[in-house]
Design a protein that fits this description.
The protein is an alpha/beta fold. It has helices at residues 13-25, 50-58, 62-68, 92-98, 107-120, 165-171, 196-199, 243-265, 271-281, 310-313, 322-342, 348-379, 386-405, and strands spanning 5-9, 29-33, 45-48, 70-71, 74-78, 84-89, 103-106, 125-126, 131-137, 140-145, 150-153, 155-158, 178-190, 204-209, 212-218, 225-233, 287-293, 301-302, 305-307. It contains 13 helices and 19 strands. The strands form four sheets. It has a seven-stranded mixed sheet with strand order 6-5-14-15-16-13-17, with helices on both faces. A six-stranded mixed sheet has the order 8-2-1-12-19-18, sandwiched between helices. Strands 3-7-4 form a three-stranded antiparallel sheet. The two termini are 19 Å apart. The structure holds flavin-adenine dinucleotide. Flavin-adenine dinucleotide binds next to helix 1, strand 3, strand 13, helix 10 and helix 11.
Amino acid sequence: MGIEKVIIIGGGPAGVAAALHLQERNQISCTVYETRSEPTTLGGAIGIPSNGLRLLDRMGLSDAMMKKGTETSILNLHSLKGNEMGRMDMVSWSRQQTGFGYLRIRRTDLMDVFLNAARKVGVPIHFNKRLTRVEEKNDQVTVFFSDGTSDTGDFVLGCDGIHSSVRKLYVDPDCTPQYSGISNVFSLVPTSELSPVASSLDALNATLTSDGMFGISPATTARDVIYWFFSREIAMPNTGDSRDGWEERGKEEVDRLKTTFIDLLGEYDSLWVNMLRDVVHKTDVVKFYPIFKVPPGRPWHKGRCLIIGDAAHAMPPHASQGVSMALEDVFLFSKLLCHHSQHLDAPDHQRLDDLLQSYESKRKARTEQMLKTAERNGDIRKKKTPLRLRVNELALSWGLWAYGAIGLDKMGIGQKALAYDIEEEQF
Ligand SMILES: Cc1cc2nc3c(=O)[nH]c(=O)nc-3n(C[C@H](O)[C@H](O)[C@H](O)COP(=O)(O)OP(=O)(O)OC[C@H]3O[C@@H](n4cnc5c(N)ncnc54)[C@H](O)[C@@H]3O)c2cc1C
């Protein structure tokens, strides 16, 4: 029997993109169930490189995203003293290969575009739906919610993020997300309140300190809002990996952020460092996010249920690939369903399981490669002595210079993964 109805758990980027794409490309009816009472996810701004932008374009959404976000493909490295130590275009080569650069967009704007598109094509999205059970019988899956309601479909997609209930309740109950050792604090600040240096930013700017990395970038087309983050090693709460422990740790971090950061900047006095002090000083609302990852090598499907996006492969955000990886999942799953519907002669459960195995092995190879990049990028955020910091600054500065001077950028070194096209994968 073909798959005609897909139930989607989770209304974040993966869930809404999946509903849109499966409904448009596969003509499959999709219903989204979201646990929150309204369509909001954690704030901040998301970087989307060439591979993800190309897929948004194929979904007909890239123009709407471009109208809200801003192209920020240049990475500028600043020393603690405030000097610019190097710069690179992160997508110089992949832009030529794909036609798409690098977008920075507020998460709320990204979700607005997805949700407006879903509304237009009539994808039903139900809020306040907390999943409590998944049951599979006779090629049908039923999901049950805490309000006593349920729904039955031919397939369930778990798009419910790093602490996925679909994974916990059904696909892989033994899997426990692991704390990466690094946490982020971040905020969005209107530039009207900041110095002219902050309002004229047009790139992603990074400053290394001996205890973490500070990044700052415009986040809107008008460049009237900037996004900043401070990413550093933070120990697990003394009470272990509990929700209360993390809430307490987050509160401590946010409370002492201003003094921690100002201390790390030391006595330096330059336009750049003064701007960083000003930005942090004038920030009212700071969010804290401990970064977890799903351990690699775990199963992603069971019967007629598959987890995608962060539920399957959440990774540190230091490679800016979370949303793009979720989009690639969606496109490959859509292709899997096309293949499935064209070969309805073999025994159904066998055929579907083979396809899902093949899906998993393709996506695992790709996401594990991204995980390695993200972890490598994360190392720079770890604590170091002032001497080590200086060595790192010099090495990075030299690396950025060599990247352009030797022509590594023209060979696509470090950018090949951004020109990868998921639609070239075959079943
Ligand atoms: C600080 C930070 C910075 C980041 N920066 C970037 C970046 O620059 N670029 C990038 O691409 N990615 C970035 N990411 C990662 C990116 O946010 C994620 O990869 C992306 O949001 C994954 O989308 P998702 O839909 O799989 O999961 P989520 O965004 O987590 O969405 C899951 C949805 O499921 C819902 N849900 C959860 N449990 C249930 C349940 N039981 N029943 C129903 N619904 C449920 C949640 O409420 C949520 O709406 C960053 C992440 C963080 C934390």
